């Protein structure tokens, strides 16, 4: 299996999530890509920690299933049905965030692993579709969310993977968009004049697996609980000087 944080397994998802840390929880957070593998685990962990979570996803039924999987913690889940890769979807997200006021944290778990032809053999429609799903969606999510981050202390955490650290033959569009995502965060950081708003990139180098599967892996992997804990730690108390944190090993 090729190493990448973007290729998430579709096995059993853990429903019960213990509180992440004894610190006071984030009051409100938004999670883009909430119905994905990492996004779903992140949402449930935040809910279990007492956070009100605005969960953004394209499928109303999957968002409701996420609420149900959280049990009683699901009462703190606010579903936002929107396709953030479109202008209209981003507008809907911005409107819902305005209704709930400023947020202390935003997480962007957008995009998935892709393998296919080499770049010189890639057709334009596929290239354009991947640019939209893997980079434009990050741009629109940020455009809708960043102005609504709490100026007195908040964080924007975006997930990325190995493809942004090294070229991945056969997965060129993911490498290109991953590099673009990194620069997107750099520009957002440079343009934001609010000193207490932080931007972090969590680069998960290895495939993400369910709890307990690491001991059976034949290659380097990262367990989902470690991914969630790293993301929430960055959002809660991350140093503004920590622009990128790598999780796993090359």
Automatic annotation (TrEMBL):
Extent of Basic residues compositional bias: 1-10
Gene3D superfamilies: NAD(P)-binding Rossmann-like Domain
A Gene Ontology molecular function term of the record: oxidoreductase activity
Annotated stretches, region: Disordered: 1-20
Entry-linked SUPFAM superfamilies: NAD(P)-binding Rossmann-fold domains
Origin: domain of life: Bacteria
Family the UniProt entry places it in: Belongs to the short-chain dehydrogenases/reductases (SDR) family.
Protein name: SDR family oxidoreductase
């Amino acid at each position: 299996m090729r190493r990448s944080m973007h290729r998430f397994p579709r096995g059993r998802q853990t429903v019960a999530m213990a509180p992440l840390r004894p610190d006071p929880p984030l009051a409100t957070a938004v999670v883009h890509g909430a119905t994905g593998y990492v996004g779903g685990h992140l949402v449930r962990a935040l809910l279990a920690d007492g956070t009100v979570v605005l969960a953004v996803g394209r499928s109303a039924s999957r968002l409701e299933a996420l609420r149900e999987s959280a049990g009683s913690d699901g009462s703190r889940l606010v579903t936002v049905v929107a396709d953030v890769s479109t202008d209209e979807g981003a507008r809907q997200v911005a409107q819902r965030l305005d209704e709930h006021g400023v947020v202390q944290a935003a997480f962007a778990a957008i995009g998935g692993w892709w393998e296919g032809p080499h770049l010189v053999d890639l057709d334009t429609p596929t290239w354009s579709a991947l640019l939209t799903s893997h980079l434009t969606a990050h741009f629109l999510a940020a455009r809708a969310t960043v102005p609504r981050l709490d100026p007195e202390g908040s964080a924007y955490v975006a997930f990325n993977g190995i493809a942004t650290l090294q070229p991945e033959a056969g997965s060129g569009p993911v490498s290109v968009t991953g590099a673009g995502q990194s620069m997107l965060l750099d520009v957002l950081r440079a343009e934001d004049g609010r000193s207490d708003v932080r931007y972090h990139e969590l680069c998960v180098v290895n495939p993400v697996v369910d709890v307990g599967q690491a001991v059976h892996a034949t290659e380097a992997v990262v367990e989902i609980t470690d991914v969630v804990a790293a993301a929430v730690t960055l959002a809660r108390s991350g140093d503004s000087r920590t622009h990128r944190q790598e999780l796993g090993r090359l």
